[in-house]
Design brief:
68% of the residues lie in helices and 2% in strands. The radius of gyration is 25 Å and the shape is globular. By secondary structure, the chain is mainly alpha-helical. Helix 3 (49-72) runs antiparallel to helix 6 and helix 6 runs antiparallel to helix 8 (177-192). A two-stranded antiparallel ribbon has the order 1-2. The protein has a single domain (12-201, 208-258), classed as CDP-alcohol phosphotransferase transmembrane (TM) domain (Four Helix Bundle (Hemerythrin (Met), subunit A)). It contains 11 helices and 2 strands.
């Protein structure tokens, strides 16, 4: 009896199915992503640009793992969501801005710094909007298949695309302040825009596409091992090319989805119900 009571107390203290260890693992991955982003800044300060970009890539991979690990272990929490947003801002907002500034934009002085600040601010606004949209109790079905604007890890990768092209093409082509500034400004706009981009959270690969998917994953992995910068550049170009496709697919999905019920739309704040007050009866004429 005493042994059973001790086991029950341990189960309640650990949180049961979603206990403390289940919450610790995804949060530890989030902290690792944060450390990778900060390490990218340190590598940039030392002039090791390839290591700086690699650190941001590692942070993006870890960022894609922490949420899936939390759902797999039933370890989602409000603390984890807030930590993830702060980690994303530092690793994909602050770190890429400082890396690009120390790489080429410092040649423009204050103008280059303002462009980097604009990128970081747009990253913060994009993350704040994402957190706000999560509070919607009745999102449309198509919304789970898309992001609104470019997400944080993809934005960081696109912002660092000139560095990857520089690593592949050499000096004198993509290491110009104008190219870095234009890229940062474009990515900042894409992050705060309402342009839809594909989300992989609800991506389900059909059974017939399993073998081609494995072949594609193997080719990407082999490319990252043998020609990492060329592979990352190709992935970035493919991602940009997929944005117009996402716009068309989202429009079709929105057109095919029936409008929400009045009660559901009212609860979600999509419609406003106005109550008409009955007109007052006419007053009797007064004698002169």
């Amino acid at each position: 009896m005493f042994g059973r009571a001790r086991r029950n107390r341990r189960g309640r203290a650990g949180g049961g199915k979603g206990g403390a260890m289940n919450r610790l693992i995804p949060n530890a991955i989030t902290v690792a992503a944060l450390c990778a982003g900060l390490s990218g800044i340190r590598f940039a300060m030392d002039g090791r640009w390839e290591w700086a970009v690699t650190a941001i890539v590692v942070a993006a991979i870890l960022d894609g793992l922490d949420g899936r690990m939390a759902r797999l272990l039933n370890g989602t929490s409000k603390f984890g969501a807030e930590l993830d947003s702060l980690s994303d801002f530092v690793a994909f907002g602050v770190a890429p801005a400082l890396i690009v500034y120390m790489w080429v934009l410092n040649a423009w002085g204050a103008a280059g710094w303002i462009i980097c600040l604009a990128y970081a601010v747009c990253m913060a606004l994009r993350l704040a909007r994402f957190n706000t949209m999560l509070a919607d109790p009745n999102p449309p079905k198509w919304q789970g298949h898309f992001f609104v604007g470019v997400p944080a890890p993809a934005g960081a990768g696109l912002a660092l695309l000139p560095l990857m092209l520089h690593f592949q093409a050499g000096t004198g082509w993509f290491d110009r302040p104008a190219i870095g500034a234009a890229t940062m400004a474009l990515v900042a706009f894409l992050m705060v825009s309402r342009i839809p981009t594909f989300s992989g959270k609800k991506l389900h690969l059909p059974r017939g596409w399993m073998v081609p998917g494995l072949v594609a994953a193997g080719l990407i992995f082999a490319g990252l091992l043998n020609a990492p910068w060329a592979t990352l550049v190709i992935l970035g170009i493919v991602y940009l090319a997929a944005i117009p496709v996402a716009v068309v697919v989202q429009r079709r999905m929105r057109a095919a989805e029936p409008p929400p019920e009045p009660a559901v739309a009212e609860a979600a704040g999509l419609v406003t119900v106005t109550l008409e007050t009955p007109a007052s009866p006419p007053r009797p004429p007064q004698n002169a």
